[in-house]
Amino acid sequence: MTTINKNDFVEIEFTGKANNEVFDTTDKEVAKKMGLEYDVTPLIISVGNQMLLKSFDDFLEGKEIGKKYSLKLTPEKAFGKRNPSMIKTMPIKVFHEKEINPYPGMAVQLDNYIAKVLSVSGGRVSVDFNNPLAGKDIEYDFTIKRKVEDDTERVNALQEFFFKQKFEFVIKGEGKDKKVIFKKPEIKPFVDIFKPKFNAMTGLDFDVEEKSEKKEVKEEKKE
User: Fold this and answer.
1) Is the pTM of this model over 0.70?
2) Residues 6+ apart with CB under 8 A from 213
3) Which domains are seen in the chain, by residue range?
């Protein structure tokens, strides 16, 4: 029997429901029944490192691989209660300046926040900045498919979550001397920010390949 501990990387298949309606899934069968066209795959995460909703993440520790689990969360433990002060009334010109014609139910991005348009009337727009899942009971059905030991898979999982894209890298060294070296010098400042966190999560060192300076060789013409 293999149980899961903090910092373990695992592949997890789950379906999240809000008031019995699916809002997220990595289960192909569930996605197929919903008629989703995009390809879904199990997610690889590092346990205890907030790569999932905190209450869900905390629940994973001590669980067994291959066993089916169900977790029910109240709004307080999930996405919080709805906050009336997060509903704002804004002049419609704010939207027109961004070339947006608002209508009820429309999702919009304002000041780096995603909001939902509730109503449009008399040149004013009522907008809800609450998380769409706020105030709802949440349930997760999940299975931990396997523990991920491969370093390449673990690094790619971190890239997908924190970088939102994948950069080419190589892994050099053995044992405690293993080092992940990204081959794109331009991302060094970004990697330096995450290096301590990534090291704590994987036990690997992280660095970026230095720029190779081209040396121009001048040849003197012989007369």
Assistant:
1) yes
2) none
3) 1-80+134-148 (3.10.50.40), 84-128 (2.40.10.330), 150-211 (3.30.70.1770)
Tokens at 13, concatenated: 């298949």
Helix boundaries (H) for 25-112: 28-34, 54-60, 92-96
d(CA 150, CA 214): 36
Encoded tokens for 93: 């010109």
Could you tell me the CA-to-CA distances from 95 to 19, 91, 110, 119 in Å, in that order? Answer: 32, 8, 9, 13
Do 25 and 138 touch, CB atoms closer than 8 A? no
CA atoms within 13 A on the CB side of 217: 1
Q: What is the pLDDT of residue 209?
A: 92
| Contacting residues for 52 by C-beta, under 8 A, at least 6 apart | 45, 60
